[in-house]
Amino acid sequence: MMATLPVRSGRLGREGPRLYVEEEPAERAAYWRINGYRAALYVWTVAEWESMAERPRDAQYHPSGLWCALRVD
């Protein structure tokens, strides 16, 4: 869903910048856009990672004790 922010000054015209709002965010992911493409960062704890039957091959371990995987659509 796209949302338009209101603008207080007339510098940008009648509409403000457009934001992407995730309608149903996943519990273990953060979403944003990179160069217009939708991106998601998935995060797992060590316990969740060890209990997974199939682990993503591109995930990387972070020193804070999390496994992370970046996806770009």
Low-confidence stretches: none
Count of the domains: 1
General form: elongated
Q: Could you state the order of secondary-structure elements as H and E?
A: EEEEHEE
- Strand proportion, as a percent range, falls in 35-45%
Largest sheet: 4 strands, antiparallel
Q: Which range best describes the helical content: under 10%, 10-25%, 25-40%, 40-55%, 55-70% or over 70%? A: under 10%
- The class by helix and strand makeup works out as mainly beta
Q: Please, what is the average pLDDT?
A: 76
Strand order of the largest sheet: 3-4-6-5
Terminal CA distance reads 16 Å
- Helix tally equals 1
Radius of gyration: 17 Å
What is the number of strand segments? Answer: 6
Summarize the structure in words.
With 73 residues, this protein is mainly β. The protein has one domain. Helices cover 8% and strands 42% of the residues. The protein has one helix and six strands. The chain has one helix spanning 46-51; strands at residues 2-4, 18-20, 29-34, 37-45, 60-62, 66-72. The strands form two sheets. Strands 3-4-6-5 form a four-stranded antiparallel β-sheet. The mean pLDDT is 76.
